[in-house]
TrEMBL record:
<dbReference type="InterPro" id="IPR036291">
    <property type="entry name" value="NAD(P)-bd_dom_sf"/>
</dbReference>
<dbReference type="GO" id="GO:0005737">
    <property type="term" value="C:cytoplasm"/>
</dbReference>
<dbReference type="InterPro" id="IPR001509">
    <property type="entry name" value="Epimerase_deHydtase"/>
</dbReference>
<feature type="domain" description="NAD-dependent epimerase/dehydratase">
    <location>
        <begin position="5"/>
        <end position="225"/>
    </location>
</feature>
<dbReference type="GO" id="GO:0004029">
    <property type="term" value="F:aldehyde dehydrogenase (NAD+) activity"/>
</dbReference>
<protein>
    <submittedName>
        <fullName>Epimerase</fullName>
    </submittedName>
</protein>
<dbReference type="Pfam" id="PF01370">
    <property type="entry name" value="Epimerase"/>
</dbReference>
<dbReference type="InterPro" id="IPR051783">
    <property type="entry name" value="NAD(P)-dependent_oxidoreduct"/>
</dbReference>
Length: 317
């Protein structure tokens, strides 16, 4: 891979993939709708000559075609808001796959774990897809679209991430907790603070995603991206307090509280149906990655949370 394009480059996963690609001396085209955000991304990378940007609309396949004609791999990191998923997710899939098919390109799709529903077996790529939520069912249809036989020229793969954290994270469940702690304010924790859950550090996820993308035989498959280990909210708060010195209140929000807040917030309203993950957890297996790619990068939570919180605190100043 000599040149890649990152769709949704200014988002949480997009930013870390841009960084990882540049770290490997790969030329990167950052693609998005907001020129101001793309210029900020350029500035964050000290205007690295290997990084350029193209303006475009993820729902307009022709703008992707125009921007991606010279690349080796397309990384699809753009997403739609929870409250818009029913109307827009399929359209996004159609657009990016049509562009990849026209260009005869490899495309890496970043996705989550809603397709699995409740965990009933080992969390490998063969886990039954039995979603009980609207979002999970939409994601199953999205996967069918990505791997549809109608794309004769595109070569696609899907990587699935659990909940994640990192300085670039924007919409993860843990983000409001860490932002509140970094700002020395009272903060919230979405879900049960006693449930051990899986989180992946975004820079680790980016390494794994790019490693997979570089393997020609990885395409046409699903790949799970595991986290470091299980950790409870209470342990996360303990680590965050050591880093920030913030001793203020952290308020756990259960399903009832989320449902109440959702009366006034359309995004939070859509979180209610996937609160099962905050209560039960879901653990992904890294066996396939270890067997086919190599050791799973696993930054200890103490280090990953410290790096995240220090960057958040720096950005607040």
């Amino acid at each position: 891979m000599k040149i890649a394009i990152v769709l949704g480059a200014t988002g949480g996963t997009g930013q870390v993939i841009v960084s990882e690609l540049l770290e490997r001396q790969i030329e990167v085209i950052a693609f998005g709708r907001s020129e101001s955000k793309l210029k900020t991304l350029m500035e964050d990378h000290d205007f690295d000559q290997r990084l350029s940007y193209k303006l475009g609309d993820i729902f307009d396949y022709q703008t992707i075609v125009n921007a991606a004609k010279d690349v080796d791999v397309i990384f699809q990191c753009a997403n739609v808001k929870y409250q818009e998923m029913e109307g827009k997710l399929h359209l996004l899939g159609e657009s990016v796959m049509k562009a990849a098919d026209i260009l005869k390109k490899k495309i890496v799709i970043i996705d989550g774990i809603y397709v699995y529903g409740h965990q009933v077996a080992k969390g490998d790529e063969n886990h039954p897809q039995q979603p009980h939520t609207k979002k999970g069912k939409l994601r199953v249809e999205f996967e069918k679209l990505i791997f549809s036989n109608k794309w004769e020229n595109a070569k696609a793969l899907i990587v699935r991430l659990p909940d994640y954290y990192g300085a670039t994270s924007q919409n993860s469940y843990l983000q409001p907790t860490l932002e509140g702690m970094a700002a020395h304010k009272n903060s919230i924790f979405i879900g049960n603070m006693n449930t051990p859950r899986e989180y992946v550090y975004l820079p680790d996820a980016a390494k794994m995603i790019v490693n997979i993308a570089e393997k020609d035989n990885a395409y046409g498959e699903n790949w799970n991206i595991p986290g470091t280990r299980l950790i409870s909210g209470k342990e996360i708060i303990q680590i965050a307090r050591k880093v920030t010195g913030n001793r203020k209140m952290v308020i756990p929000l259960n399903k009832s509280a989320i449902r109440l807040i959702g009366l006034f917030d359309p995004f939070i309203r859509e979180v209610v149906e996937i609160m099962y993950l905050t209560k039960e957890g879901f653990v992904l297996s890294g066996e396939k990655y270890e067997k086919r790619i190599g050791p799973v990068p696993a930054t200890p939570f103490e280090k990953g949370l410290e790096e995240t919180l220090r960057l958040l605190m720096h950005n607040k100043n």
